[in-house]
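Aim 2, interim progress. The first record below pairs a target sequence with its structure tokens.
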Amino acid sequence: MSTSPLIETLRLDDEQDALVIIDQTLLPNEVRYLSLKTQSQIWEAIQQLRVRGAPAIGIAAAYGVYLAVKHSTANDHSTFLDEFRQASRYLASARPTAVNLFWALQRMEDVITSSAVITAGADVDIPQLVTALRQEADAILAEDIQTNQAIGENALALLQVGDGLLTHCNAGGLATARYGTATAPIYLGQERGYHFKVFADETRPLLQGARLTTFELAQAGVDVTLICDNMAATVMHNGWVQAVLVGCDRVAANGDTANKIGTLGVAVLAHEFGIPFYVCAPSSTIDLATANGQLIPIEERNPEEIYRKWYQTPMAPEQGVKFYNPAFDVTPAKYISAIISEYGIARPPFEPALRKMKEQG
């Protein structure tokens, strides 16, 4: 897959003890990389969406917790583990919905709580543990790239040459290490002459579709049209959309899926118009411990994002008005045609197929 975004989402600068990210809050008008050296800087970048997208958040957390203990002065396993867990809890508090954040941090902790390490006890080699943590974070990043390529192949099998595709939010290269999840089949199709026509929802209130998806797809030469969120029904009614592709932040055991706010509305519309609605979900976002979507914690964000963030003056009265700003909604499994992971395509009823996918991982 050679067609891909021209931007590096994040990387480790080990010599400078820094996580380097592109500041996505400034796109598309400014491309600026930030060198994050403190835990508070990394926490703030995750919380403020400077780095965003479930896979990218997981990678950032993995490198972040590695940097937190890289220069540990602990001389025994117990003290080192305490330092690690303190840093891990702090980073985990940045955002509650994307399961990749917790999944990546757990993977990192498993490195230093393996049976071999515990058996070694106080005699464990701390520098060796630090090296192992770095290697695990590198593996999480490398696996993400491979996962996205596989999702692209699996999703492309469901699409036809010339299809119109609707996207919501940004499940692209900027949300991952590379290629994206929902955009991976678009890049693959671009490379193979599928000539997709992509309609990108702007995705209120933070405009990830407008600022990020159109930015990266246009760079790759994809035929992309920006629409307001409330235009999706008209575009579908016009017959311009043959499939909807979205990413996700968490998939419950029954197939209910949390994704950026507005995804539920798109799913309901697709159901009404008989359009397949596909969720592109790395197996790391499948959370079998959460039975259904009602149990997924939904982050609520600063209400100023709705009426003030993008405007010189407020676009709503600041007194006498209540605001509600959930970052995500949950799409019930009944509206989802298929969930596509690196391990294949799951169709309703989802739970058996999702369990099989997790077992493969």
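The second target in this work package is listed in the same format:
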Amino acid sequence: MTMSDTGSKVERKAGCNPCTNLAIAVILAWSAIIGASALWNIHLVRQSSFQLAHAEAICSLDKDMVYRRWVARHGGVYVPITGDTPPSPYLLHVRERDITTPSGRALTLLNPAYMTRQVHEMGNRQYGIRAHITSLKPLRPENVPDQWELKSLRAFAGKGAVEFSEVLTVDGSPHLRMMRPLVTEKACLACHERQGYKVGDLRGGLSVSVSMVPYMAIAQSNLHGMVFGHSFLWILGLIGIGFMWSANKKRYVEKTRAEEALKESEQRFADVVNFLPDATFAVDEDRKVIVWNRAIEEVTGILAKDMLGRGDYEYMIPFYGERRKHLLDLMWDRDPELEARYPYIRREGDSIISEVFCQT
């Protein structure tokens, strides 16, 4: 086999070597890590749209509750009577529902529920935030709870929940609906004691519906940036893995060529030794038989195929009838007692030269 043939053989083997398998495994592991990170971040980005809408809903409900408490604390507020704010027919039992100022202005009383409804209508017109006040015993038919609000009220009454929220489709687009309970306070009794409520009773709830569309648009923009960043990081990892594979492949090819050259050298050595007229065998660094020539086959009656690869001093059995150390062992271990067994022995550099006579 020529050297060029050997090089081609090595290159063909390199196409399916442990370095390639390792590179594939690292690529799969790296892709799995980037994929898992991307999925987790996609979840966080999508969750962020809910969290932003949730924060807006909380702010809206907190504002409504503050306004209601302030109005209830003052027993209601008087505002001018207009087409948008007519006297409430549900406050006829209030003796001073409508008053006239000394200057002749006609005013009507707004209780917390009436004020809240007007604030909700303005918020819907200006900001698109829908809100609703509902009651277990509504005075206005419009305050009757819908199915989702009934589910929320059951959660408040049965589980003691202080908040209930879900993402639902409203008018064809996703909205976050959130509701908080309305619990009867002392200031509420002026209007609701006649309905049988006591302080601490669940009276109804305030709900708000916040569009998810603008927050989902923000999340989508963040999602694009996150996907780009992960893709860029994944490609950088692949480039690094490519450099690693190239370096490892080069080392593997060099190692394989060296091993091929060593095998060829050993084979040539074995071919030469095999045709020597003298009985000859050789062992490797692990002290296993690598050469057992034809002459020694004739002397021992043991074929090479039965001895090649044998170790543990088995090659001494044909000569001494037992496993024992031999002159070869002096190549690895200095042993004065063993060396004394051979009267004709001398060392020349890394070589040991001796004459041994064995009767077979």
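The longest helix spans residues 213-274. This observation will shape the mutagenesis plan for the next reporting period.
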